[in-house]
């Protein structure tokens, strides 16, 4: 729900007041594999920030850090019944992409109303995505291959004016 | 993927793909084209502003009006429009929604050095939205809010003695409205909803400088400029009808981004047949409060009378009888008077003077 603007708030252009402590202490680190937030060698650390009220769907937290496997089994290796042709063994794993990140987010940190965030493999029309401050439409959208410490911002434009 | 160079300056890295043109531009060029396009909307034709005009920016604390306050303050300096700018906010009385966003407006007031006026439903109508929802329920409460807000903006503007109200309606909003008016068959509104400026003889001029600005670019602009805005959903039921139009439009935009501007263009090309226009109701002033109205009582007075009588949804279908005096004991809306800064015309504020005195005696609040 709504937050009040604390005196220590700063502008972030994201439609919520970022109180100072959020940046330092309230960063939600998703615990992966019982390693209490630690990142394994084969994992990517991705920082996520929500704007335009989207944080309401993610435990009310505007900032999250998630750890994602560097490689994800391709659909062929999973239960997908209509796999792409996978000739070589290398195709069994692919480097983690935005598609994998969004799937991971839905599974781990999305706390409510999935239909307000996701649609199909991607995000709902009207949600802007920036990867390291660039419009994801310039970065290949769902096909973008994530790098360690990438920063991804999701901003909803769906209400308020 | 190699970084794409900006298609305008060919040096910096492109960070935004413009929905209107597909152009890939860097941050600096994006600011430049965004601001220049708003300036072009402002000066196109005869221009929407007059030098020396007092202009109120309808400010909600949300993204559109925050970016508008920022851009208009800047353009007023850059191009020397010679405008006196004000912030005008309406407090609907929605706890946990408007009270928080008004804090943002107060921050904007400081950042841009603009005088701020806040007018509340409670002062004006004697009812907050919280209390209205308590009485009428969540269905249809948007009708009350919409009718009351429109009038409140005009009244606030009259109190500030401004000549002109600008609002943050963007291209997406206008395209939505075109779709809604087509689906509702509302030809009168369809005819005027795409106009950058609307004015009838007894209303304060209203303009939409963001008429051609895509919502995506407004949000990107706020993000890159790190502007303070507030974003929460209204806690009462959203305008469901607009919601449908909005989702549909966003789906269209995903397939073809120019759809938004194309729909606005269609709306602009629509011409209302002269005979049809003649057959429509002429505007008059509300016999109770003096605000413009197509009936003896304006919508706000009719809705208020319903609330005061303890009615619920029936207030929406209020019969317009000949009885224009409020039932005794009912609160009424203060008389609408325009304090024009420059005398707009000889009849400014004069239209309803004859009934002013008897009604004052009836007004309770």
Automatic annotation (TrEMBL), chain A:
Its main location: cytoplasm. HAMAP family: Urm1. Residues 1-42, 61-98 are annotated as: Disordered. One of its GO terms (cellular component) is cytosol. InterPro entries: Beta-grasp_dom_sf, Mopterin_synth/thiamin_S_b, Urm1. C-terminal thiocarboxylation occurs in 2 steps, it is first acyl-adenylated (-COAMP) via the hesA/moeB/thiF part of UBA4, then thiocarboxylated (-COSH) via the rhodanese domain of UBA4. The keyword Transmembrane does not apply. This is Ubiquitin-related modifier 1. The keyword Cytoplasm applies. Residues 18-42 have a biased composition (Basic and acidic residues). It is found in: Cytoplasm. Residues 7-17, 73-90 have a biased composition (Low complexity). Acts as a sulfur carrier required for 2-thiolation of mcm(5)S(2)U at tRNA wobble positions of cytosolic tRNA(Lys), tRNA(Glu) and tRNA(Gln). Serves as sulfur donor in tRNA 2-thiolation reaction by being thiocarboxylated (-COSH) at its C-terminus by the MOCS3 homolog UBA4. The sulfur is then transferred to tRNA to form 2-thiolation of mcm(5)S(2)U. Prior mcm(5) tRNA modification by the elongator complex is required for 2-thiolation. Also acts as a ubiquitin-like protein (UBL) that is covalently conjugated via an isopeptide bond to lysine residues of target proteins such as AHP1.
UniProtKB/TrEMBL annotation, chain B:
Residues 55-233 form the tRNA(Ile)-lysidine/2-thiocytidine synthase N-terminal domain. Keywords: ATP-binding, Cytoplasm, Nucleotide-binding, RNA-binding, Transferase, tRNA processing, tRNA-binding. GO terms for molecular function: ATP binding; nucleotidyltransferase activity; tRNA binding. This is Cytoplasmic tRNA 2-thiolation protein 1. Its EC number is 2.7.7.-. It comes from the Eukaryota. ATP binds at residues 58-60, 64, 90, 168, 173. It comes from Dioszegia hungarica.
């Amino acid at each position: 729900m709504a937050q009040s603007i604390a005196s220590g708030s700063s502008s972030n252009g994201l439609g919520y007041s970022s109180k100072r402590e959020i940046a330092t202490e309230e960063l939600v680190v998703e615990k992966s594999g019982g390693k209490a937030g630690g990142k394994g060698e084969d994992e990517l650390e991705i920082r996520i920030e929500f704007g335009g009220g989207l944080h309401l769907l993610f435990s009310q937290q505007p900032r999250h850090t998630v750890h994602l496997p560097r490689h994800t089994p391709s659909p062929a290796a999973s239960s997908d019944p209509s796999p792409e042709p996978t000739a070589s063994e290398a195709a069994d794993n692919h480097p983690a992409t935005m598609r994998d990140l969004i799937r991971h987010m839905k599974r781990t940190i999305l706390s409510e109303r999935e239909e307000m965030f996701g649609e199909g493999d991607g995000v709902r029309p009207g949600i802007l995505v920036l990867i390291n401050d660039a419009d994801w439409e310039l970065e290949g959208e769902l096909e973008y291959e994530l790098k360690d410490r990438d920063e991804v911002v999701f901003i909803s434009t769906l209400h308020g004016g | 993927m190699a970084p794409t160079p900006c298609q305008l300056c060919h040096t910096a890295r492109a960070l935004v793909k413009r929905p209107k043109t597909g152009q890939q531009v860097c941050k600096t060029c994006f600011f430049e084209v965004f601001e220049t396009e708003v300036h072009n909307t402002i000066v196109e034709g005869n221009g929407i502003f007059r030098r020396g005009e007092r202009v109120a920016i309808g400010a909600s604390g949300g993204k559109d009006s925050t970016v508008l306050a920022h851009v208009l303050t800047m353009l007023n300096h850059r191009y020397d429009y010679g405008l006196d700018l004000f912030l005008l906010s309406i407090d609907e009385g929605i706890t946990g929604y408007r009270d928080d966003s008004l804090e943002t407006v107060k921050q904007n007031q400081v950042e841009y050095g603009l005088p701020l006026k806040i007018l509340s439903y409670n002062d004006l109508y004697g009812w907050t939205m919280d209390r209205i929802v308590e009485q009428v329920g969540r269905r249809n409460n948007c009708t009350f809010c919409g009718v009351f807000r429109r009038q409140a903006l005009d009244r606030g503007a009259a109190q500030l003695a401004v000549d002109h109200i600008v609002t943050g309606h963007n291209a997406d909003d206008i395209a939505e409205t075109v779709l809604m008016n087509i689906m509702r068959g509302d030809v009168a509104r369809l005819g005027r909803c795409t106009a950058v400026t609307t004015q009838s003889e007894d209303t304060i001029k209203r303009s939409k400088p963001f008429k051609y600005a895509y919502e995506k670019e407004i949000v990107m602009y706020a993000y890159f400029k790190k502007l303070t805005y507030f974003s929460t959903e209204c806690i009462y039921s959203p305008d469901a009808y607009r919601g449908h139009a909005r989702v549909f439009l966003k789906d269209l935009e995903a397939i073809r981004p120019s759809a938004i501007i194309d729909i606005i263009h269609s709306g602009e090309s629509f011409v209302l047949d002269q005979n049809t226009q003649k057959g429509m109701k002429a505007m008059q002033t509300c016999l109770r409060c003096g605000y413009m109205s197509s009936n003896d009582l304006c919508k706000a007075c009719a809705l208020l009378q319903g609330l005061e009588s303890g009615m619920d949804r029936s207030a929406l279908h209020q019969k317009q009888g000949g009885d224009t005096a409020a039932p005794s004991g009912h609160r009424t809306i203060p008389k609408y008077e325009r304090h024009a800064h420059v005398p707009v015309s000889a009849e400014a504020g004069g239209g309803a003077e004859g009934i002013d005195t008897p009604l004052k005696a009836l007004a309770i609040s």
